[in-house]
Amino acid sequence: MARLTGAGPGTVEAMFDAGLFVGADGRAVDARAPYRPGMFVWFHRELPAEPPVPFPLEVVHRDEHIVVADKPHFLATTPRGSHVTQTALARLRDELGVPALTAAHRLDRLTAGLVLFTVRPEERGAYQTLFRDRRVHKEYEAVAPYDPALALPRTVRSRIVKERGVQAAREVEGEPNAVTRVELAGHRDGLGRYRLLPETGQTHQLRVHLNALGVPVLGDPLYPEVTAAVAPGDFRRPLQLLARRLEFTDPVTGARRAFASGRTLSAWSCPAGWAGQEP
Q: Which one of 31, 66, 112, 180 is most buried, counting C-beta atoms within 10 A?
């Protein structure tokens, strides 16, 4: 019970007292009951209130096999940690009435853009395999400082590791496991708009690679250095990273699929407004 994540002092004891731990027969388990190998115990815990993410989650495509959503910044893809109800998956299951909906991949909570969900449990593996086997063409867009001395386009290769319990990933010596094509799509007023084509999918890969090039993504709380944690409900200064396009051959229907996000990055579309949102 010591591993019950997020449980404060006295929480587990109070749950036992209230009979909230039950066995396979549905009967409450006594806190003094002896340990039995292989015994299963069920419980439901109260979920803390989550600040609602006040941005729309757009459905780009829906059919009997898949749903493609255009996720806003600050909305997690799937339940994790303190984000449960305020996730793209929870919202879509509720709004579309598809309780079996499952994410085929994930985007960071701070990253906006396209996410693919599967409708039928028996087809989930086929779509997840597309991402595992790198058979999905993914294109991202980022806004970061412009450096005229940075020669682009170029392909960045490095080895990235992300340690459990550590917020930021880091580059280390060794065989590259992260590959990103970086192109400059335009620049003005000291800002660059970058087109990013990842060949791999390491955690924070695009953010790490742009930071390594000396042009960290605007609004990034982790790179080049970890800043103070953003307070819950503070939706100012979103990370200027967007999953712009997804393209693949559908493993179930054989059709060629191509989807594009309709979102814009505010630091590019309205730089003065974005800069004026003090963190």
A: 112
3-state helix/strand/coil string of the chain: CCCCCCCCCCHHHHHHHCCCCECCCCCECCCCCCCCCCCCCECCCCCCCCCCCCCCCEEEEECCCEEEEEECCCCECCCECCECCCEHHHHHHHHHCCCCCEECCCCCCCCEEEEEEECCHHHHHHHHHHHHCCCCEEEEEEEEECCCCCCCCEEEEEEEECCCCCCCCEEECCCCCEEEEEEEEEEECCEEEEEEEECCCCCCHHHHHHHHCCCCCCCCCCCCCCCCCCCCCCCCCCCCEEEEEEEEECCCCCCEEEEECCCCCHHHHCHHHHHCCCC
Residue 3 has pLDDT above 60, yes or no: no
Give the active site residue among 108, 133, 189, 220. Answer: 108
Confidence of residue 233 (pLDDT cuts 50, 70, 90): confident
Same domain, 35 and 78: no
**Claim to verify: residue 152 and residue 196 sit in the same structural domain:** yes
**51 domain residue, yes or no:** no
pLDDT, tens digit, for every residue of 87-136?
Answer: 999 999 999 999 899 999 999 999 999 999 999 999 999 999 999 999 99
| Choice between 94 and 229, residue whose per-residue pLDDT is larger | 94
Name the residue range of residue 233's domain: 58-275
Residue 119 lies in a domain: yes
Please count the structural domains in the chain.
2
The answer to whether residue 255 sits within a structural domain is yes
Q: Does residue 181 fall inside a structural domain? A: yes
63 plus 189 within the same structural domain: yes
- Give mean pLDDT, residues 57-66: 97
